[in-house]
Amino acid sequence: MRLGAHIGTSKGLVEAVRQGREIGCEAIQIFSKSPQMWAGPPIAPDAAAAFREAATAAPALATAIHHGYLINLGSPKAFMLRRSRTAFLDEIRRAELLGVDGLIFHPGAHLGSGPEAGLRTIAESLQGVLEAVPEGKVRLLLENAAGQGTALCSSLEELRTVLNAVDAPERLGVTLDTCHLFAAGTDLRTEEGYGAFRDRVETLLGRGTVRAFHLNDAKAELGSHRDRHENIGKGAIGLAGFGPLVRDPRWQEVPGYLETPLDERGYERYTEDLAALRSLRGTAVEPRTDSPRRTPRTRRSASPKT
Q1: pTM of the entire structure?
Q2: Mean pLDDT, residues 135-140 taken together
Q3: In the 8-state DSSP scheme, what is residue 44?
Q4: Phi and psi at residue 5, in whole multiples of 5°?
Q5: Could you check whether the bond before residue 59 is cis, i.e. omega within 30 degrees of 0?
Q6: 303 pLDDT band (50/70/90 cuts)?
């Protein structure tokens, strides 16, 4: 797996690439604008060109944009749905300009309309934006949810339902978040549990559909449906729980982006998490077979909540 992290762009797009390389990233994920805004300032063509050049300089980084938090492609509310589709189309065009490999997004929430209606609306949203950008090269990557509230796609089955309903399989894919998987009830902590998960991925999604991972430990227990990220090895999944995933040759060229908590030490926390994950690549670490103790509370995360 190509290990990396979500890097901020407050100091510029090229600086994000430099910071990612400095801490040893093989992949970087960014926001192309503030995630709390419907629209952001245009990206200057020269800034986009500089980002593309920096990211593809040897050794090339895998790159992704994570969409803004306000968008809900499954909303039953007409005004919100129109606004979400417009904003998502803008995200796609920004991603195309920057030349990233993938645009990672939360599919949406049904807000009471029901899962069937919500999934259908998400598929219709995706069909529409893809038709609006017919020559697009950036893969749109649905991210699995933790199962909180009415959020959709916490299961592989719901992800497959959306993928099947969109007539553009070559332009879609999936990002799997380890914290969200764990919160939704998938136990990765044993070889047996990981093997069952891997087989379900290949059966329901297909290996080539998984184009990225979010590598996050979990503050909450298995099946909690709580989206609370923790640093690698510090949460309920535990360090060994990432071993089978990181070592699996199926994902050798697939990027894995950290979205773990940061504090006053900044990206030093990412450096520690990357080192922990790299230690698993060639080190046999016995998977946990017991239920871990509840982890203590930590200070609020400064990293992206994605």
Answers
A1: 0.92
A2: 97
A3: P
A4: -160, 165
A5: yes
A6: low
